[in-house]
Amino acid sequence: MDTINRESYGAAADKLAAFAASADVQRIGAVGEEILAVAGLLGRERPLRRALADPGRAGEDHAALLRSVLEGKVSDEALDILATLVTGRWSGPGALLDGVELLGVTTLLSGVDRAGELGDVEDELFRFGQVVSGDSRLAAALADASSPLEARVQLVKDLLGGKTKPATARLAELAVTGFGGRGFESSLTRLVELAAKQRDHSVAYVTTAAPLTEADEQRLAGRLAELYGREVSLKIDVDPRIIGGMRVKVGSDLYDGTVSRRLAEAKTALAN
């Protein structure tokens, strides 16, 4: 988010945090679903989202318009949080829609956090992503925008129903719809990172040639925590093709100490 959008989102996030601090898990989840439903409405109704992001109108006018549309259709809690969101300045209708989607997901994650299931959901989302990326037919089916969305959502329900936390399946469904305008795999990765952020963790994507021992994982997590000044959640992928060593990606930082990289560099040097 740019500065304007970040400030506008921050005010709504503060209101959400205050609500989530006192509400029960079921209520938080219900409000999250309402906010996501409003995101769906804005996605369909371009004139409405343009009006709500119009820089020529006062923030209070945006909030009044939103209330006139949603009054009696969503809870007071959801309406108050969303009114705070649209009162702020946004760089455009697309940015506002992204903000509403993010707010809905953050609300769902707040409920999962209160239930003590956030770490499990984070890991389940990552593992589901690995399953999908390892099956080319499944990956193609979930990413196929020409296929009816309902069919792709049902496929996720069939794959995950009863096998993961309910929140994991719900978030995976959101990934299919293209969370934040992303493709399925990018959406899923973003949701994993948002779950980690909710726990005040960074995510480290680790690729190794062979499984790490528990002691190795603890040492690596400890070193990364020292480096980044916060807890780090390891997402480990075993790939024998790297031959040996390790590749670690945290945000935009990449540490590649794999044997395959060294061999490639040596081959390039010899060719030159």
Core attributes:
272 residues; alpha+beta; Glutaredoxin; 4-stranded mixed β-sheet; 4 strands
How would you describe what is shown here?
By secondary structure, the chain is of the alpha+beta class. It has 3 domains: 1-115; 117-199; 201-271, Glutaredoxin, CATH 3.40.30. Helix content is 68%, strand content 9%. The radius of gyration is 21 Å and the shape is elongated.
List the helices and strands and how they pair.
Blueprint: H1 3-22, H2 25-44, H3 46-52, H4 59-70, H5 76-87, H6 93-114, H7 118-133, H8 136-143, H9 149-160, H10 166-177, H11 184-198, E1 201-208, H12 214-228, E2 231-238, E3 246-250, E4 253-256, H13 259-271
Parallel strand pairs: 1-2
Antiparallel strand pairs: 1-3, 3-4
Helix pairs in contact: 1-5, 1-6, 2-5, 2-6, 3-6, 4-5, 6-11, 7-10, 7-11, 9-10, 10-11
The tally of strands reads 4
Overall pLDDT level = 93
Q: How many domains make up the coordinates?
A: 3
Main beta sheet strand tally, sense and closure: 4 strands, mixed
Widest sheet, order of strands: 2-1-3-4
Which radius of gyration do the C-alpha atoms yield? 21 Å
Q: What proportion strand?
A: 5-15%
Instruction: Look at the helices and sheets and give the structural class.
Output: alpha+beta
Distance between the termini: 43 Å
Poorly predicted runs are none
Portion of residues in helices?
55-70%
Helix/strand order, N-terminal first: HHHHHHHHHHHEHEEEH
From the spread of the alpha carbons, the general shape counts as elongated
Number of contiguous helices: 13
